[in-house]
Amino acid sequence: MGFIYNLIEWSGAETIFNIGSFGIRYYSMCWLLAFVVSYVLMQQVFKKENKSQEELDKLTMYIFLGTILGARLGHCLFYEFDYYIQHPLEMLLPLRKVNNEWQFTGYQGLASHGAAIGILLALYLYAKKTKTDFMWITDRLILVVPIAGAFVRIGNFFNSEIIGKPMETIYPWGVIFTKVDNVVRHPGQLYEAVGYTILFIFLWLFYKKSTTPKPGLLFGIFLVCLFSIRFIVEFYKENQEEFESGMLINMGQLLSLPFILAGLYLIFRPVQQQLKK
Where, by residue number, does a 1,2-diacyl-sn-glycero-3-phospho-(1'-sn-glycerol) bind (predicted)? Predict the structure, then answer.
């Protein structure tokens, strides 16, 4: 990374260090930090709520699988449906068939909206299996989701992916992603990371200071705020797929709207209309 005329020049370093042919990537490290930090914070929540370590470990496994599967399938179905509907095995395998030969590519493509859906399904299954109230566990888990999302977006920055649009007016925080081109762009990934971090601080303090908020209130605030941040930041980011170019709002914004509406419902619904587990 360097600075040119008060701008950031980012060369897109992807690997922290290599052990032989195996490299430790910044993006993978950010994902790992997202889960580790979330786990440590949830330990505090479960301790406060008199829940056992065993329950947290079981929840962590559900969330991990829900996040990975949801993010992967979300990308395949929302952004590259035409390709993956003809290559369904590649949705779940970190492989791609090139010239009739299978090549290891890793999971190139993860969608945050798919991750959100996957997490919700995982929470539903966890609540049903453990006979835990769905709204109770959801109100607690969303406390750590924003900070996890911030780590993932920082990983995207390291990879020079999901880049921002060119700046019409040059600001000191403009970034030149030299792996892509020499254009001064908005650091859209960092905009999201900052927004998610602020949301995390707000939700955490709200949880710590509030006594007994109505079930679903924290979840509703989370949905409205996080997906509003996503909706706004999308105006400063390049579209991820070509088909989005002709859309009034892009796929990320379109997918954010149902979550925002669901959040508004949870915030303003009468207390007695509690969702059942």
Answer: 153
